[in-house]
Amino acid sequence: MASAEHHHFDNEYGEKAARNSAPADRPTFERHYRIGELAEMWSLGRETVRLLVKDEQGVIRIRLGRKKSHTIYSVPESVAVRIHTRLLNSR
User: Fold this and answer.
1) How many angstroms separate the first and last alpha carbons of the chain?
2) pLDDT tens digits, the chain, 91 residues: what are they?
3) How far apart are CA 31 and CA 76, in angstroms?
Protein backbone atom coordinates (compact mmCIF):
# COMPACT_ATOMS: atom_id res chain seq x y z
CA MET A 1 0.00 0.00 0.00
CA ALA A 2 1.42 3.38 -1.01
CA SER A 3 1.79 6.06 1.60
CA ALA A 4 -0.31 9.16 1.11
CA GLU A 5 1.07 12.66 0.92
CA HIS A 6 -0.78 15.38 2.76
CA HIS A 7 -0.97 18.96 1.51
CA HIS A 8 -2.29 21.90 3.45
CA PHE A 9 -4.34 24.42 1.54
CA ASP A 10 -6.35 27.36 2.80
CA ASN A 11 -10.02 26.71 2.24
CA GLU A 12 -12.57 29.42 1.51
CA TYR A 13 -12.68 30.37 5.20
CA GLY A 14 -8.92 30.79 5.56
CA GLU A 15 -8.61 27.55 7.55
CA LYS A 16 -5.90 25.01 6.82
CA ALA A 17 -7.37 21.92 5.21
CA ALA A 18 -5.35 18.73 4.89
CA ARG A 19 -6.07 16.81 1.72
CA ASN A 20 -5.04 13.29 0.96
CA SER A 21 -3.36 13.28 -2.46
CA ALA A 22 -2.52 9.61 -2.89
CA PRO A 23 -2.25 8.49 -6.52
CA ALA A 24 -5.43 6.43 -6.08
CA ASP A 25 -7.47 9.61 -5.50
CA ARG A 26 -9.58 10.70 -8.42
CA PRO A 27 -9.74 14.46 -9.18
CA THR A 28 -13.37 14.02 -10.21
CA PHE A 29 -14.41 13.87 -6.57
CA GLU A 30 -12.17 16.54 -5.10
CA ARG A 31 -13.12 20.20 -4.73
CA HIS A 32 -12.86 22.23 -7.93
CA TYR A 33 -12.18 25.98 -8.09
CA ARG A 34 -13.10 28.57 -10.68
CA ILE A 35 -10.73 31.30 -11.84
CA GLY A 36 -12.41 33.97 -9.71
CA GLU A 37 -12.15 31.90 -6.53
CA LEU A 38 -8.43 31.28 -7.01
CA ALA A 39 -7.83 34.93 -7.90
CA GLU A 40 -9.48 36.03 -4.66
CA MET A 41 -7.69 33.42 -2.50
CA TRP A 42 -4.29 34.22 -4.00
CA SER A 43 -4.83 38.01 -4.27
CA LEU A 44 -4.08 37.95 -8.00
CA GLY A 45 -5.98 39.24 -11.00
CA ARG A 46 -8.38 36.95 -12.84
CA GLU A 47 -6.36 37.18 -16.07
CA THR A 48 -3.13 36.29 -14.23
CA VAL A 49 -4.77 33.21 -12.73
CA ARG A 50 -6.28 32.27 -16.11
CA LEU A 51 -2.81 32.39 -17.68
CA LEU A 52 -1.44 30.21 -14.86
CA VAL A 53 -4.09 27.50 -15.19
CA LYS A 54 -5.02 27.49 -18.89
CA ASP A 55 -2.37 24.97 -20.01
CA GLU A 56 -1.97 23.13 -16.71
CA GLN A 57 -2.49 19.37 -16.81
CA GLY A 58 -5.65 18.30 -14.97
CA VAL A 59 -7.61 21.52 -15.52
CA ILE A 60 -11.04 21.00 -17.04
CA ARG A 61 -11.94 23.42 -19.83
CA ILE A 62 -15.57 23.90 -20.82
CA ARG A 63 -16.02 25.85 -24.06
CA LEU A 64 -19.34 27.66 -24.40
CA GLY A 65 -19.65 28.55 -28.06
CA ARG A 66 -16.91 29.19 -30.54
CA LYS A 67 -15.09 32.00 -28.79
CA LYS A 68 -12.19 31.22 -26.49
CA SER A 69 -13.41 34.00 -24.22
CA HIS A 70 -16.39 31.80 -23.39
CA THR A 71 -14.30 29.11 -21.71
CA ILE A 72 -14.91 28.04 -18.13
CA TYR A 73 -11.94 26.58 -16.26
CA SER A 74 -12.52 24.11 -13.43
CA VAL A 75 -9.34 23.59 -11.39
CA PRO A 76 -9.14 20.53 -9.09
CA GLU A 77 -7.77 21.30 -5.64
CA SER A 78 -4.68 19.12 -6.21
CA VAL A 79 -3.84 21.15 -9.32
CA ALA A 80 -4.43 24.43 -7.47
CA VAL A 81 -2.05 23.26 -4.72
CA ARG A 82 0.56 22.34 -7.35
CA ILE A 83 0.32 25.75 -9.03
CA HIS A 84 0.38 27.61 -5.72
CA THR A 85 3.40 25.62 -4.49
CA ARG A 86 5.23 26.37 -7.74
CA LEU A 87 4.48 30.09 -7.30
CA LEU A 88 5.76 30.05 -3.71
CA ASN A 89 8.96 28.19 -4.66
CA SER A 90 9.77 30.54 -7.54
CA ARG A 91 10.55 33.46 -5.22
Assistant:
1) 35
2) 344 444 555 555 454 554 544 444 565 689 999 999 999 999 999 999 999 999 999 999 998 887 767 889 999 999 999 999 998 998 7
3) 6
In one-letter notation, the amino acid at residue 66 is R
Cβ count near 29 (within 10 Å): 8
Q: How far apart are the C-alpha atoms of 25 and 76, rounded to whole Å?
A: 12
Question: How many CB atoms are located within 10 Å of the residue 1 CB?
Answer: 5
Angle at which helices 77-89 and 46-53 cross, to 10° = 100
As a whole number of angstroms, the distance between CA 66 and CA 70 comes to: 8
